[in-house]
Task: structure prediction
Amino acid sequence: MRRETGLILALDETDGEKAVRIAESVSDTVDAIKINWPLVLSAGPEMITRLSGISDVICDFKVADIPNTVRLIVEESVRRGASAIIVHAFTGEDSLREAVSAAGKAEIFAVTEMSHPGGMMFTAPHAREMAELGAKCGVAGFIAPATRPDAIRTVRSAARGLKILSPGVGAQGGSASSAISAGADYVIVGRAIYGSDDPKSAASLIRDEIRRLL
Ligand code: BMP
Result:
């Protein structure tokens, strides 16, 4: 995945044609497009392939399953054009290793701590352990919350060379600058871009905010 702007669009728009138009309009402003269940369930898994012709696609399926099921989901995502897949780290060593092996040249990103308030209950207390485990299992990086920059620092100190992708900017209250300053390599932004009347300008503003820090 390239790192030119440090910005990833979370394309949770459920109108497939609108999603493609937004993707085309921001493709030179973002490094990748992350898609999640809302778009895949509304517009079909063909969307992975279609969007992969516009940008690198990260399949945010937050895979949390036994190794065999993890393998099947990761392989199918890659076959359809995903450059990266997001999995939960709490599933443990065997599932994480299976994800990395099934991904081949694609990247696996593991969630260490979720950005919403509920993320404090079970994920936050184990974020460091999960980052250490993920590094041992060969993941490319982690998903850590922009809503809690200290949590990004924790992951950064546990897994120095790996990438950190940070959601929670804008609609959830986090800021791109504080996430990048805390050690994130990329910020993931959804509603503040795709929900805007002018997604291209909204993305450009965040890109400029990141650029001032890089
Ligand atoms: P938004 O900027 O609209 O809040 O979207 C954030 C995106 O990042 C959503 O797709 C969400 O599923 C994802 N995400 C998150 O918000 N917090 C996490 O801890 C992990 C995520 O993948």
In short: Residues 10, 12, 36, 60, 111, 114-115, 119, 143, 145, 167-168, 170-172, 188-192 surround 6-hydroxyuridine-5'-phosphate (CB under 6 Å). The domain at 7-211 is CATH 3.20.20.70 (TIM Barrel). The chain has ten helices and eight strands. The chain has one domain: 7-211.
